[in-house]
Please model this.
Amino acid sequence: MNPQLSIAVVLLFALFVFLVTGIRIVPQGEEWVVERLGKFKKVLKPGLNIIVPFIDRIRAKLSTRDIILDVSKQEVITKDNAVIITNAIAFIKITDPVKALYGVENFKLAIQNLIMTTLRSIIGEMKLDEALSNREIIKARLKEQIIDDVADWGITVKTVEIQDITPSPSMQQAMEQQAAAERERRAIETLAEGNKNATILEADGKLEAAKREAEAQVKLAEASAEAIRQISFSIEGQPMGAGFLLGDRYIEALRKLSDSQNSKFVVYPADLQQAIRGLFAQFGK
Model:
């Protein structure tokens, strides 16, 4: 083979190898970290890039788009010793590929563990009711506490959402029993309050009836006194006025006694005729 031709073939082969191993096209949304002889050299941006074959190598291909991190469910103990189950989801973005690659062994695993420990710490300072009703506060405090640590790894936390925060099954059962006991207690109190009010109303009714009965007795006594006075005035000088009135009441009482449905026998005084005769005899005088 012609020596010149051989050199040309070698050069073409070397050029082919250079093109194959030295040209790198980075897609949009990614950044590649390049090392030269084991040491960081540069970061390849999206587009056409050239590296030195056999000397430079692509250490890592990192996405610069938002990354979704799912934080697994975990049991957390609240300040009042209640067990709740919670998990979260975080949206992060790599802002410095060099720090993300060399700053921590595995940035995804590190952030997941950081969120879990921080979440346990925040909820551990709250009581059960506070933890269940303050999801937004937990979210804000969680983001505030991890954002600085994550920034050291060249990563920005865009948001952290608390997906679930619920009592554990045993805690739910205890809460349901507590709620049932509370409802039963309220029912008993309501029933007792109703009975008390009914008793008070009944007593008030009896008291009012007694007062009215007493007033009626007074009115009746006053009417009787007035009747006696008027009869005595009309037959002034005759002693039978009071006797007539008493006889009239006596006969009226016997009539009511005989009209009663509970009375089967009515016993008249033995001297009833004598008394009536004496009464009318007084009129004849």
Notes: The two ends are 184 Å apart (CA to CA). Strands lie at 23-26, 30-36, 39-44, 47-50, 56-63, 67-77, 83-94, 155-167.
